[in-house]
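Work Package 3 (structural annotation) set out to generate three-dimensional models for the target panel prioritized at the project kickoff. During this period the team completed the workflow that converts sequence records into discrete structure tokens, so that structures can be stored uniformly alongside our sequence database. As a representative example, we reproduce one entry of 218 residues exactly as it appears in the project archive.
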Amino acid sequence: MPKKTTILIIVLVLFTAGLIYIAVKTEQQVPPKVPSETITEEEALNLIPTINPQTQISFSPAVLNIFENPQTSYSVDVAVNTNGQSISGIQLELSYDPEILTDFTINPAKNNLFGQNPVVLINSVDPELGRASLAIALGGITADEVSGTGNIATVTFSTNSTKKLSTQISILPKTTVRSLQSTNSLLQNATPLNIILSATPAGSGLNPTLPPTDSQLQ
């Protein structure tokens, strides 16, 4: 075999062996660890802004005169005014005197602000404590958030005879108004329902159209 051919074969063998060695070493190398980017819970919450609350909740009517309009039962709507804000749901928490108001129920209002088929997440009444809860939201995940004025709930109740001049259905601080665009509740304020139970005594100095305050009754 010519000497040049022998040298060429040796060079090719060495070259091939070098390629094999490089390939094996490359497979054995552990790829460098790339530090993963993690965010804290606070940073995650900051991805959704906090919006200034402007939504108001009240009863319609705001004053119910049972003395002048006696019935076996009464129904009053709970109304919402979002003042331009878009909302996706409300959890309404009410408090009342169970010794005065009986057969208390709360249900989604007809012609509801959240549409014809809102989702009811909570609907409960505790007649011993005098507490009622209604959580209501949009009818589907694809539904657009709503804004404007409208009713969300209707409360129905009867009354017992009492010596008190008035009572209230209060909207508790636990009440929240939610939006997918904000991490905080959008509830600005809530107005209770004032219920007049009996005639104001003559000469008492009390406003006959509004229930007296605790200080006035002392």
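Confidence is low (pLDDT under 50) at residues 202-206, 211-218.
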